[in-house]
Amino acid sequence: MAEKLMKYADAVAKYDPVFGLEVHVELCTNTKLFCPAHIEFGGEPNTQLTPVSLGLPGSLPVVNKTAIDYAVKLGLALHCKVNEWSQFARKNYFYPDMPRDYQISQYDKPLNGEGYLDVELDDGSIFRVPIERAHVEDDAGKNTHVGGADGRIEGADHSLVDYNRAGVPLVEIVTKPIEGAGARTPEVAGAYVRAIRDIVRALGISHARMEQGNMRADVNVSLHTGPDAPLGTRSETKNVNTFKGIEKTLTYEIRRQAALLESGGEVLQETRHWDESTQTTAGGRVKTDANDYRYFPDPDLVMVHVTKDHIEELKAQMPEMPRERRARLKKEWDFTDRQMQDAVNADAVDLIEDTVKAGATAAGARKWWLGEISREANARGVSLQELPISAQDVADVEQLIADGKLNDKLAKQTVSGVLAGEGKPAEVVKKHGYQVVSDDGALDAAVDQALKDNPDIVAKLKGGNMKPMGAIIGAVMRATKGQADAKAVSKIVMERIAKS
Amino acid sequence: MSAQEELVKQSASDMAAQLRSGQVSSRELVQAHLDVIEAAEPSIDAFLQVSADQALEQADAFDQHLAHEGAEGLPELAGVPIAIKDMIVTKGIPTTAASKILEGWVPPYDATVIKKLKAAGMPILGKTNLDEFAQGSSTEHSAFKTTHNPWDTERVPGGSGGGSASAVGAFEAPLALGTDTGGSIRQPGSLTGTVGVKPTYGGVSRFGAIAMASSLDQIGPVSRSVLDAALLQEVIGGYDRRDSTSIPKPVPPLAQAARQGQNRDLKGLKVGLVKELGGEGYQPGVEARFNEAVSLLESMGAEVVQVSCPHFPYALAAYYIIMPSEVSSNLARYDGMRYGLRVMPPEGVPQTAANMMAATREAGFGDEVKRRIILGIYALSAGYYDAWYGSAQKVRTLVIRDFEKAFEQADVLVSPTSPTTAFRFGEKMDDPLAMYLNDVATIPANLAGTPAMSIPAGLSDDGLPVGFQFFAPQMRDEVMYRPAAALEAALEEQWGGPISKKLSTPWLDGLAQDSTK
Amino acid sequence: MISGMPTFTREEIKHLGDLARIALTDQEADRLKGELNVIADSITKVQEVAGGDVPPTANPIPLEAYLRPDEAEEPLTQEAALSGAPVTESGMFVAPRILGEE
Questions:
Q1: Nearest chain B residue to C42, by CA
Q2: Which residue, of A259, A293, A314, is where some domain finishes?
Q3: A94 touches chain B (CB under 8 A)
Q4: Cβ of A302 under 8 Å from any chain B Cβ?
Q5: Hey, of C21, C48, C59, C66, which one would you mutate to test binding to chain B, going by the most B CBs within 10 A of its CB?
Q6: Closest residue to A305, CB basis, from C19, C65, C97
Q7: How far apart are CA B235 and CA B100, in angstroms?
Q8: pLDDT of the residue at B342
Q9: C21 pLDDT exceeds 70?
Q10: Average pLDDT, whole number, for chain A?
Q11: Of the four, A329, B55, C37, C46, which is 20 to 30 A from B151 by CA?
């Protein structure tokens, strides 16, 4: 059962991978691509259907304008040639989750033609991914397999079909064969799909939640011994729906194919799928002419015309793209590459930006969001956005520190209080009576008592050895229950030493 | 003649006039037709489903409306009942496309044309028989019954819309709707002595018309007079945003053109005789009636010229590539999952979804449908797409260009509708090619999207009706209605009334003298 | 341009039946073979006039697509959606066992 694998380092030393990705992005339109059924994730089964999306006899598709606009925006972001005239075509194959037993897609006249996307790798270098096309098509319904183990297709007794997802608009972004990534193939693939996720979110055209299937990728890869050598047979791994899965699929397929080629075996042209539980790809059906989809122009639809003027209008609405925005913010915030990357990985860029807008310094905002708050999010297993703390809250805490009303320790306690749902920072401070003790009377007394209790330290300080200062501050802190301002304490101590 | 017989033998526009003048109610009209249906069906078998209760309810609603609010804002045909080819989806009334695969399906929605008929207060009498999924030229390919030609019940009514044509021809309905993909309205019209119109492609919404070949299908009127067809097309026509191939323009003034034609003055009109649609393969009796009708057009002042459409001889071949290709895709959805028939695979065959689909489709489709699906799958497959489908689409361009050139020389084009009169049952069932030749004169209009209609031109030597076909340019349907109405008027003067006067209707003999209650 | 006239064999017809998801019987396949060879013979003539300079026509009336606004309309109820289904369970359509194809 287990397939032979070659060590990854050996595989990429010996073979040059050429890969391609077909990324499907579900658009977050209000209604479906070809009918006015409202789309909502997680609704009751078969309640988001019109005769069109159920494929009833006599029903006809009508194109959703917003879906086309969204797809054009994505095409523009991917530097594609947006075609003024495009055409829908039928892709014919039978499957229980397809209401018409053909998918309405685009074939030789896609909405978006050739383009590219520059993606940033971990070391800050840029890799240009060439794009073949980004066309529009409709999604299929969902099968739930019943009677087998873990709802998997194998061994299932029958399947239940919910067509709610049928007709949801998708853009399929197809790369050209990507060459030259070598050992970094999985990294490039991961960075590319993440970059697409960031772009569609920035454009506001997809929820881009991998876990809800808003984004899925088909991963193709084949090996050859060098740029001029003939390409080997490629495998196609379908519907990989996590970033890590995409990277692992490529790593696995490169290792598997290399081992096969090394042993004189043959790579089959087949459809495979990524199995998260075994961390392997498994072979599916060998591709034959059964995959002749018999594309032809959909006679129920006519040419889609997007005028030059309209493309210009959409272009004018385009927000700053994520990579450009990150470069700008990194500079404005004076972050290092590492710091910026951390912020991106933690999905904290927007939060930091909002916190800065609310008055905090970038360094202060970063410290909180990537420090205390990230730890709490990890502990709870939720995203930063889901925690009960806002950018405004963080900015308020920073302001209290700047005003000398909180020290670091109290600030941390305040943030913990907000995270625990005790209210806004001011409320938490009030509730616990957090207060930096800096009024001279109480502080002077505490310092005098500490000096009196520690004559040996006083002697050292007089002799010019400042190291034990911390012990005095610690004593004062204990006496004031942590509410003293350390700077103020050290100032008073120095005054006393100088006077005596 | 009983009062009832007298009532149902009128034209739809005369019935409409009587409704407005209060001489008759919509309920009386509906009841009279239901009575005829009951009497005629044993001989004719035009209906798959009679929706008597709904029709009477609709009639009552219309009568109420007329009594309280008058007829203002309603189309002229308001209150006149109609029969619907069972290829058109009707909410709450079973719709089968005459196929076992859809048997018992009750649609949860109405086709756009049905909504329009309902809004016009036109009661729906029932659903008429057809060749399965409108595929055939004799209605013999229905999975449920054989419809008989009222002129000779031993003969076919043509097809695929034999049910609608026979129902109107036999006075079971004053009007009907058909669908025309390669002649399915016009050829049965020709064979049953009725009027059948295929409007411009996109002139009538296809939303709710079960798709056979989407780029060729068109819903149109079936009637006993040119004016009735015009009035009906005005009710069902017009732009529909639910159909992406619908033309965003209002319906041209068709009834006005028909009424103008009744004046029988065709001075200034140029009529083009299509050289390629005649001669070999056309019955002498058909050609004789056709030529006489052309002379009549001339006698009313029309100028007759001969035009050549050199690519028409390729139209049939192109049609038999494009049509099955679209059929193979349009009929994929009948897979046993969401509606209609499900047949599980026989014992010993794995009980999988794929095998269920294959077993369902094997059992649910008839021979002609299977033949076309297989042919279509082949025509679209990678190895043959360019040679077949691609070439056929080019021929389509050439046929359109032929029409454009011909319409530079003439205002309307004419030809016999069908090369022969009605044939006997079984005569062409074993020879698909011979069956396909029935549509040789009607297919060019479907490929080019041009409007065309068939009207009765008289009886051939065998005593059976002959059809005369008019073609007009795209989106100019009114252009053919005028000469068609003129020719109809001139012929009826010769005959001393409509052609149906020559039809013996023994099934009406038993009707009660007055049972309009 | 004129390529060879296709000749159907029984195996090809069966294969087309698989693609069409129709479980043709041997008898049907044999009959279809004969009929389709005759039909194919007569329709291959489209290639005679389909020159490279002739553009294809997919739709007889040159229109551009009406793009509808992204506004929702009342959907079918679950009951209506399922009303024609041969087999249902828990508000869903039931498919027999699906093999891992496609």
A1: B317
A2: A314
A3: yes
A4: yes
A5: C21
A6: C65
A7: 32
A8: 98
A9: yes
A10: 91
A11: B55
> Does the beta-carbon distance from A94 to B242 stay under 8 Å?
no
Asked if residue A1 is part of any domain, the answer here is no
Range in A370-379, B242-251, B505-514 with the lowest mean pLDDT: B505-514
Domain boundaries, position A490? 440-499
- Structurally, how many domains does chain A consist of? 3
Give residue-wise pLDDT tens across range A419-450.
999 999 999 998 888 877 666 677 888 888 88
Q: Looking at the structure, do residues A415 and A285 belong to the same domain, yes or no?
A: no
Q: Which two tokens stand for residue A465?
A: 């050895």
Q: Is A335 left (phi over 0), alpha (psi -120 to 50) or beta?
A: beta
A contact test, residue of B102, B112, B239, B337 with most A CBs within 10 A: B337
**Residue that the structure tokens 């301002």 belong to:** A485
Residue A407 one-letter amino acid: N
Q: Which chains touch B (3 or more CB pairs under 8 A)?
A: A, C
How far is it, in rounded angstroms, from Cα A186 to Cα A127? 13
* CATH value at residue A459: 1.10.10
What pairing do the DSSP bridges indicate for beta strands B465-471 and B452-459? antiparallel
CA–CA separation, B481 and B263 (whole Å):
12
Whether omega for the bond prior to residue A53 falls within 30 degrees of 0, making it cis, is: no
Task: Give the catalytic positions of B in this structure.
Answer: 85, 160, 184
Q: State the Cα–Cα distance between residues B379 and A295, nearest whole angstrom.
A: 11
List phi, psi (to 5°) of B449: 75, 10
Tokens of A400: 């209290």
B-proximal residues of C, 56-85, CB under 8 Å: 56-61, 63, 65-66, 68, 76, 80-81, 83-85
Report pTM. 0.90
CA atoms of C14 and C33, how far apart (whole Å)? 10
Q: How confident is the model at residue C6 (pLDDT cuts 50, 70, 90)?
A: low
Pick C65's closest partner by Cβ from A46, A63, A154.
A63
pLDDT confidence of residue A471 = 86
For residue B517, what pLDDT is reported? 40
With beta carbons less than 8 A apart as the criterion, state whether B369 and B99 touch: yes
Q: With an 8 Å Cβ cutoff, are B333 and A55 in contact? A: yes
Instruction: Give the count of Cβ contacts less than 8 A between chain A and C.
Output: 132
Are C70 and A299 a contacting pair at CB < 8 A?
Answer: no
Give the closest residue to A150 by CA, choosing from A269, A276, A64: A276
pLDDT tens for each residue of B48-75 = 999 999 999 999 999 999 999 999 999 9
Neighbours of A453 (CB within 10 A): 12
Q: Three-state SS for A292?
A: coil
**How far apart (Å, rounded) are the C-alpha atoms in residues A130 and A81?**
13
Gap between the Cα atoms of C100 and C102, Å rounded: 7
A216 near A193, Cβ under 8 Å? no
The 10s digit of each residue's pLDDT in A115-173 is: 999 998 888 899 999 999 999 999 999 999 887 665 566 667 899 999 999 999 999 99
Query: What ipTM is given for this predicted complex?
Result: 0.96
Answer whether residue A3 is part of any domain.
no
The CA distance from B122 to B236, in Å, is 11
Per residue in B296-329, pLDDT (tens digit) is 999 999 999 999 999 999 999 999 999 999 999 9
Name chain C contacts of B377, Cβ cutoff 8 Å.
16, 19-20
Residue with tokens 């001339």: B298
In sequence order, what are the residues at sequence separation of 6 or more whose Cβ sits closer than 8 angstroms to the Cβ of residue A38?
Answer: A30, A31, A48, C72, C75
Question: Which of A253, A283, A314 marks a domain boundary?
Answer: A314
Domains of chain C and CATH, by start: 1-51 (1.10.20)
**DSSP secondary-structure letter at A483?**
-
3-state SS, A249-301, equals HHHHHHHHHHHHHHCCCCCCCEEEEEECCCCEEEEEEECCHHHCCCCEECCCC
Contacts of C21 in chain B (CB under 8 A): 332, 335, 354, 357-358, 361
Contacts of B241 in chain A (CB under 8 A): 62
